[in-house]
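[audit] Reproducing an earlier prediction to check determinism. Same input, same settings, fresh worker. If the tokens differ from the archived copy the diff job will pick it up downstream; this log only records the rerun itself.
[audit] input (254 residues):
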Amino acid sequence: MGILDGKRLLVTGVLTDASIAFQVAKIAQEQGAQVVLTGYGRLSLVERIAKRLPEPPPVLELDVTSPDQLGTLADRVGEHLDGLDGVVHAIGFAPQTALGGNFLNTSWEDVATALHASTFSYKSLAVACLPLMKAGSSVVGLDFDATKAWPVYDWMGVAKAGLESANRYLARDLGKHGIRVNLVSAGPLRTMAAKSIPGFKEFEESWPEKAPLGWDLADTAPAAKAVVALLSDWFPATTGEIVHVDGGVHAMGV
């Protein structure tokens, strides 16, 4: 018997089998959950990656910045699942001009794109799925510690700070529905998203040395297991929280 037996989940953000979201979907299925994935852009790629899961799930198209697609999401998910017990937000995007040390020169238009896709979409996704959720359901988002100004992360760091704040407000407003809302703040991992950040090598070189527990840049399982735990019934009174899965770096000084 798995800790997600009978749970119905929507998982966003699967790009490759190196994605944290892929590992979440895999472990969730192994723990007894039914899963539906969403993809954006190259949907055929997500469908191909989905076949590598223990039970190939349906894949729905979702642009989280599109009101039309968000507006039909509940109906489209409802064609495969009769409700949702959990939603995973593993979505983040910033134009290249918003990263890599260009903080002072980034245009508002590019900043707005980063905030819309990476921050506002957390609320948008939760609200779009709300008709399918009930008391006891869980929303979990993926985060990167926004309490510090990191090298090269720039406006994505600001977007993550907004995500952490949105997490608290969503927890406040969805609490009356009995829905929990939490974030998992993972350390740097060699995902497709990370590869798009200019200068990411700075994280790769320093993080394992700073982490008291050490840190494997290629292992998405620890972060995924934390997400699965928060989707389960084992955290019934935890909401508005940020669980750090980073080898302990967040707790260390210089």
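[audit] rerun output stored. Observation attached for the diff report: The longest strand covers residues 133-143.
[audit] end
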